Structure formats: structure tokens, C-alpha cells
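Hello, quick one for you while I still have it in my head. A protein chain has come my way and I'm curious about its shape. Can you walk me through what the C-alpha cells say about the fold? No rush at all, and the record is pasted right below.
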Amino acid sequence: MNWFWIALKNTFKYKGRARRREYGWFSLMCWLIGIVFNIFIGASALLGLADLGAILYFVSLLFSLVTFFTAISLTARRLHDLGFSGWWQLVPMGVIVVAVGLLTMIGESELFSGTLSAVFAIVIVIIFLGFYLGLLFMDGDRFTNKYGADPKNPNVEVEQIESEVTLPQEDKADVWKNKSDNNNIVQ
């Protein structure tokens, strides 16, 4: 739940990087809150409480508006963590525009409309799932990239790690040189 609030605090922050945990918890909480709103709106409609349903619908729209802007910035930061530009989040939207354009052109012809509509719908779902599940499950770049420090360990720089790896190793003979003669029983 804490990651949800962190994402909301960073609504208009488009620079930097976001961890999988922040992205995943934000997505899960938005999904669950949306389900709760829909259940209460449906229940108020069934119980004949139209005024309550209208108020809940309005609050649901406000929540969606706030989380929409948060999701855009969070997705941009998540893409930065993977080493991509935040503009790549427009790819799924471009796929929808192209698919709707193709379906509109094909829709005039009755011959393929049902089959091609189903194929395009399946392709769109696969692209969306691939994109958003990739954001959810792919591990971000280790160490600092061009978008900022590693959010998992922001204090470690690449140069520090490289200098630790290239340190010369001691010879085994040098290790025995520093031992005292107390270990020698026979003198």
C-alpha cells in the first residue's frame, strides 16, 4: 500500500526511475479500487439508490482521472528503469489507432468483418498484455543508466563496483609471510 502512495506523490515526476514493486502495487491497487467502485455502483443501482450510484460514479471518474496522470508518469519512469524512453508507452495506443482504422476500412466489406475483427482483437490483447506484463516482470537496468541511479540501490555507482573487481589479489606466499613463528612447534 505504501508504494501506491509513493506513486501518487510522484504524479508529475517524469524523470528518474521506478521499481517493479512501485509499478505493480500501483496497478494492483487501482484495479482493486476500480472493482470496489463498480460493485458499489452496481449494488446501488440494484437497490434503487440512483443518487448514491451517481455520486459513486462521479467519485470513480475523479479517481480514474487522478490515477490516469499518475499511471502516465509511473509508466514513463518504469520504462526509464528498463533503459527505454518514456515515449514508448505510446506504442500500445498507436496499435489501437491502427487497428481501429483497419477495422473501419475492413468493416465496409461484410466478407471478412467478423473473422478479422476477432483476429485484430486478439492481436491487440496480446500486444497490450506483452507490453504491460513486460513492465511488470522485467528487471530494470542494474546500476546507473542515462535516466538516473538504480532505484534498488541508488548509492552504488558502476565505477565503485569496477574498482572493487579489479583490485589485485594477494599471493598465497605473501599470506604465509605475515604469519608469526608461533605456529612452528619444533624450534
Notes: Residues 159-163 have pLDDT under 50 and may be disordered. The radius of gyration is 27 Å. DSSP finds seven helices and no strands in the chain.
